[in-house]
């Protein structure tokens, strides 16, 4: 499979895989896999080649599905992140999966609705919540976007094993410099879409921005790109500052 390009496509009808050679002239469609589930995200772990997907079912619950052979078979060992029993919170939907770094075998992060982050250290068999983010002091000021209150982007700094970022709709971008033990909002340069409609709204609030997606540039984990409800931004210093680059984009 080293010469094969694989694109994982999550849909409301399950998971599809598109495959091609390096020229990408012709594509083959495989699937659907995980029939009867809504797949918000799927990814291939570059460390192991395993395929992971967030499989959501309103009747039977949610599952982090894992296949060692691109959908031919599926593991029965993986589970879904859950909050501790007896509490008031429940996982409404699984959204994002991010395999850990090369130096972190077995580590997988999962972002969920309502606006929370979990981590597995055994390939998805068990999960623990990131309490620092899930109970962040600013949480009362977070609110759901059209898709819910979701951790939809998880970015790991490949050069610094203690640094990572998440983006939450609608709360903004948060950075951790200590492996997830604490989180700081980094939204000072992201415009607040509500300022368009409310003259009293703060243009650059510390949190509450509706960020749609966050990603790191290939080969440069400190250069980040963020797409928000207001526009598109680039940061060259790990989200300390951002520059709007909306003008001229398609």
In terms of DSSP E residues, the strand content is 35-45%
Q: What would CATH call the class of the largest domain?
A: Mainly Beta
Strand runs, count: 18
Per the CATH scheme, the topology name of the largest domain is Neuraminidase
Biggest sheet: strands side by side, in what order?
7-8-9-10
Low-pLDDT windows of residues = none
SSE topology:
Layout lengths: L3 E8 L2 E8 L6 E6 L4 E7 L6 E7 L3 E7 L25 E7 L8 E6 L2 E5 L7 E2 L1 H4 L15 E7 L7 E6 L2 E5 L7 E2 L25 E7 L2 E9 L3 E4 L7 E2 L6
Antiparallel strand pairs: 1-2, 2-3, 4-5, 5-6, 7-8, 8-9, 9-10, 11-12, 12-13, 13-14, 15-16, 16-17, 17-18
Please explain how this structure is put together.
The chain is mainly beta and about 250 residues long. It folds into two domains: about 1-130, 6 Propeller (Neuraminidase), CATH 2.120.10.10; about 140-250, no CATH class. Helices cover about 0% and strands about 40% of the residues. The strands form five sheets. The protein has a four-stranded antiparallel β-sheet with strand order 7-8-9-10. It has a four-stranded antiparallel β-sheet with strand order 11-12-13-14, with no helix packed on it. A four-stranded antiparallel β-sheet has the order 15-16-17-18, with no helix packed on it.
Short account of what is shown:
The chain has 250 residues and is an all-beta fold.
């Amino acid at each position: 499979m080293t010469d094969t390009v694989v694109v994982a496509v999550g849909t409301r009808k399950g998971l599809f895989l598109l495959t091609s050679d390096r020229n990408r002239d012709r594509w083959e469609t495989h699937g659907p896999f995980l029939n009867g589930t809504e797949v918000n995200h799927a990814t291939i772990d570059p460390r192991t080649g395993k395929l992971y997907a967030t499989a959501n079912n309103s009747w039977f619950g949610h599952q982090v599905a894992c296949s060692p052979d691109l959908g031919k078979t599926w593991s029965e060992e993986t589970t879904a992140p859950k909050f501790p029993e007896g509490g008031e919170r429940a996982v409404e939907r699984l959204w994002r999966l991010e395999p850990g770094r090369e130096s972190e075998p077995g580590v997988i992060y999962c972002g969920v609705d309502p606006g929370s982050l979990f981590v597995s250290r055994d390939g998805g068999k068990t999960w623990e919540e990131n309490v620092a983010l899930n109970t962040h002091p600013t949480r009362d000021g977070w609110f759901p976007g059209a898709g819910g209150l979701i951790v939809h982007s998880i970015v790991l700094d490949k050069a610094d094993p203690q640094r990572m970022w998440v983006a939450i709709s609608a709360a903004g971008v948060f950075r951790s410099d200590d492996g997830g033990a604490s989180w700081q909002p980094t939204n000072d340069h992201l415009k607040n879409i509500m300022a368009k409609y409310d003259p009293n709204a703060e243009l650059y609030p510390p949190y509450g921005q509706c960020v749609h997606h966050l990603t790191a540039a290939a080969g440069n984990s400190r250069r980040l790109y963020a797409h928000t409800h207001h526009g598109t931004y680039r940061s060259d210093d790990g989200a300390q500052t951002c520059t709007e680059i909306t003008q001229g984009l398609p």
